[in-house]
Design brief:
Structural class: alpha+beta
Oligomer: single chain
Strand content: 15-25%
Largest sheet: 8 strands, antiparallel
Helix content: 25-40%
Number of helices: 13
Length: 447
């Protein structure tokens, strides 16, 4: 990866921090202050990947062996299982407690509380108006005293509580101001839970009625996303937290957490997992502090040509005459220029029907441009991203993704443990096995 030459204890600390942020906190969450940014270009750092960017960790997580020879990797591929589109259940809309069917209906968690948690709404409950993220929109605070345990937990821990808690949550001198929802940003939500649920679970197909309450496919998706709030996952790359990503004169990102995932690691992971194994992966496709986790469904290499050292430098450095030899990776003996298109699954609005039968409608693309660093035998040993704003005959390019990850399973918290009893990080009032039973019933056509 790009960055200073970390010593092992610091690498281990940084790796745990990345996993903690991704697994235990909001993955669609606000950033944190940045520390000092070293300039590895000036320090002469060789830029082959380090441990946190090593694709072999990704492979061992699934007990697979990777192909590293650039000339043996497939030019295109896609996942066999389609990751289903869904809402990321925005925080400002109260997460999975959002009444997506409209006024006078119940949210997915209100339905769950009614059927499974013994919640009995008051006689006037449907007259109470929840908070809506619109200025001059009145709401009933008593609504939040009347809802059931699953809906209340989600509203307070993952929902819009900060926009109505009576304190200055964003410390700007205003209390519960509507204009910015007291600091709740529109991109906050459950994309980190939607992506693994969509990758690992089948899509709900039909409505399921239990005790007179009908759970539509998007209700069941919402419940699945709720219970996938934490997952056992492997992450490649660091998390960028910069509002403004600083670059050197060549357009190369300075902060190591904003420059990775290493371009070579990216190429190895994409072509192996989607091309050879046909398995979807997750990505944070935004390289700054915002996090947009998306399931990656496929890719196609538009252009891959070997270039010499001089050509590689010309693509990466504004004035290559100032450099006597390739400065980024001392292991590089050969180079290849790559243009690749990556297809990812985008979010959808909640709906009454499944969406995978129109899966292509929810696919979007990013185009990336980079240099692969190869050894003498064509084995990928690293890579460098070409500045997306650099002039190119290939047209428009996206900025590089921030980190890649792959989930194995959801995490079931032990609420009897001291830590779980104090502060559960997944809604403790929604049971996975009950949600799984709803999912399995939804896969059977109604009689």
């Amino acid at each position: 990866m790009g960055g200073i030459d970390f010593k092992r204890p610091l690498v281990a600390l940084r790796t745990w921090f990345v996993l903690y942020v991704f697994l235990f906190g909001f993955a669609c969450a606000q950033g944190e202050p940045d520390g000092s940014i070293p300039n590895p270009f000036l320090e002469g750092k060789t830029d082959s990947w380090d441990w946190i960017n090593d694709p072999d960790r990704f492979a061992r997580f699934l007990d697979e062996e990777l192909e590293y020879n650039v000339f043996l990797l497939p030019a295109k591929g896609e996942a066999t299982k389609k990751s289903w589109p869904a809402s990321y259940w925005p925080t400002y809309e109260d997460s999975t407690n959002y009444r997506w069917e409209g006024e006078g209906t119940l949210s997915p968690l209100e339905k769950y509380d009614l059927v499974f948690n013994g919640w009995t709404p008051s006689s006037n409950f449907m007259d109470l108006v929840p908070y809506e993220p619109r200025c001059n929109s009145a709401y009933d605070a008593s609504y939040y005293d009347a809802i059931g345990p699953a809906a209340r937990w989600m509203s307070e821990k993952r929902g819009n509580w900060k926009a109505r808690d009576g304190i200055d949550s964003d410390q700007d001198g205003e209390i519960d101001e509507c204009i910015d929802r007291d600091g709740i940003e529109s991109w906050w939500g459950l994309c980190h839970a939607w992506a693994p649920a969509a990758m690992l679970e089948p899509e709900p197909l039909y409505p399921v009625t239990v005790s007179g309450v009908t759970f539509h496919p998007s209700d069941i998706k919402a419940l699945l996303i709720t219970v996938y709030d934490r997952t056992h996952s492997m992450v490649i790359g660091g998390r960028c937290r910069a509002d403004v990503v600083e670059r050197d004169d060549n357009g190369r990102i300075l902060d190591p957490d904003c420059r990775d995932t290493n371009a070579g690691s990216f190429h190895v992971v994409i072509t192996n997992f989607l091309g050879l194994f046909r398995v979807a992966i997750g990505e944070d496709r935004t390289y700054d502090r915002q996090v947009w986790n998306q399931p990656v469904h496929g890719y196609e290499i538009e252009y891959l040509e070997e270039v010499d050292e001089k050509q590689a430098l010309a693509l990466l450095i504004v004035d290559p005459s100032t450099v006597s030899e390739y400065p980024f990776n001392e292991k590089a003996a050969r180079w290849a220029e790559v243009v690749i298109t990556v297809k990812y699954v985008t979010e959808s609005n909640p709906s009454y029907v499944p969406l995978n039968d129109q899966h292509g409608k929810y696919l979007r693309t990013d185009r990336y441009h980079y240099i692969l660093e190869l050894d003498a035998d064509g084995i990928i040993v690293g890579g460098e991203w070409i500045d997306a704003k650099a002039t190119s005959s290939f047209g428009y390019f996206s900025h590089q993704p921030d980190f890649l990850w792959i989930p194995r399973a959801r995490i079931q918290e032990d609420l009897t443990s001291p830590h779980g009893a104090v502060e559960p990080r997944v809604n403790p009032h929604v049971n996975y096995m009950r949600v799984k039973d709803l999912l399995e019933q939804s896969l059977v056509p109604p009689q």
